[in-house]
Design a protein that fits this description.
This protein is mainly α. It has helices spanning about 45-50, 50-60, 65-70, 80-90, 105-115, 120-140, 145-150, 160-170, 175, 180-185, 190-200, 210; strands spanning about 30-35, 40-45, 70-75. It contains 12 helices and 3 strands.
Length: about 230
């Protein structure tokens, strides 16, 4: 995915967004992202409706202009924020020329972190679905990212559970995952324990297609929303 030039603020027209009223598309805010302060533009109403983080900052009609003037996300990589905008306007963090297997795995994980840290359940679910599509296509479970995930997520986090369940429920043997001492040092003991516990809970293995159908178990849904089909 190409990077936006720093002097070209990024903004895309809404396509997937179905705002409850036209006011969601009235005001545009600028957000400075990354250490170089790359400027992105987006509709304030959409940001507030789909992300609790932005709603807290920009949601009050009386002071949003004052608040947004200094809005900066210096710790966020511009590529991750650009993928957020792709999801916000088009419903998918992937660009048109990308697939679940072609996108960088670390990038996917940081999209997950961004969505969870800023209260964006729709983006969270899209990242989960992309991970599952990646597993289904490549038949590879992303164990090499285990440390990165465990350091940046709490116990019981959906992405943790997805990784653990994938190993436990699809018949992966722990010795096959940890073949050498170097492999053993790569994984947290708590991760291995979680996999063993999950194996006890799910002694019967399932095939890859059946596992992917369980995607809703790793989604975040408002109680008012319908579950996945």
């Amino acid at each position: 995915m190409s990077s936006a030039a720093q002097d070209q603020p990024v903004a895309v027209p809404a396509t997937n967004a179905k705002p409850t009223n036209s006011s969601l598309l009235e005001d545009i805010v600028e957000i400075k992202v990354g250490p170089s302060d790359m400027v992105f533009k987006a509709h304030r109403g959409l940001l507030c409706e789909r992300a609790s983080y932005f709603k807290a900052i920009l949601g009050h009609p009386g002071n949003w202009k004052e608040n947004h003037e200094g809005l900066a996300l210096k710790e966020v990589k511009p590529e991750i924020f650009q993928r957020f905008l792709l999801w916000l306007y088009f419903g998918n963090i992937l660009d048109n020329n990308e697939t679940a297997q072609s996108v960088n795995g670390t990038t996917l994980i940081h999209c997950y972190f961004f969505a969870d840290e800023r209260g964006i359940p729709g983006m969270h679910n899209n990242v989960i679905d992309t991970f599952l599509a990646r597993i289904e296509t490549t038949e590879i479970i992303f164990t090499k990212y285990q440390r990165l995930i465990w350091v940046n997520t709490p116990d019981g986090a959906p992405l943790r559970r997805l990784l653990v369940d994938a190993l436990a429920m699809m018949g992966t043997n722990i010795p096959e995952v940890m073949q050498t001492e170097e492999d053993q040092e790569q994984y947290d003991k708590s991760f291995i324990t979680d996999v063993l516990v999950a194996k006890c809970k799910h002694p019967m293995t399932i095939n890859l297609r059946e596992f992917v159908k369980r995607r809703c178990e790793y989604h975040i849904h408002d109680e008012r929303e319908a579950k996945c089909p």
